[in-house]
Write a structure and sequence with these properties.
The chain has 153 residues and is of the alpha+beta class. The protein is built from two helices and eight strands.
Length: 153
């Protein structure tokens, strides 16, 4: 495993739409391992493949509940409720903004074995799934920040 460089705001790769993963390869497996290592090294709760320069529909998330997730080709199929709170991003270090996201989401994806899974999430996990899947479509949280961004103290 290796820590990869996180692409920062302004890098054009962050605004591109990612391609679906069709099969699990050795390179894709290594990418997922590297994404987890990179996310943990940066003290993040989520990371999307374009943030490390790879235009594949892969995200990793760990909100500290003992259940780290690698989601391949994630798709939010249901959402309800609303939560507004501070949100940050490893690609915009030191900045946060108020973003409204669904309180509850259902996400279909493939796991590392390329088996279809369904993840039901609330609160922080729902926020993280929404944030990371936005990255796969070239959307950054700053696009949704209600009052702009401000520096973390």
């Amino acid at each position: 495993m290796a820590t990869r460089n996180i692409r920062l705001d302004g890098d054009s790769v962050l605004r591109k739409i990612c391609k679906p993963v069709k099969e699990m390869s050795y390179r894709t497996s290594v990418l997922i391992d590297d994404m987890f290592e990179t996310m943990y090294a940066a003290n993040g709760v989520g990371l999307a493949a374009p943030q490390v320069g790879i235009l594949k529909r892969i995200v990793v998330i760990d909100v500290g509940d003992g259940n780290p997730l690698a989601l391949i080709n994630p798709e939010i199929t249901f959402q309800e409720g609303e939560q507004t709170g501070d949100e940050g991003c490893l690609s915009l270090p030191g900045l946060v903004g108020q973003v409204t996201r669904p309180m509850h989401v259902v996400c279909k994806a493939l796991n590392r074995e390329m088996e279809e899974i369904t993840v039901e999430a609330e609160g922080l996990l729902a926020r993280a799934i929404c944030h990371e899947t936005d990255h796969l479509d070239g959307i950054l949280y700053k696009d949704k920040a209600e009052d702009g961004l401000y520096e973390v103290e």
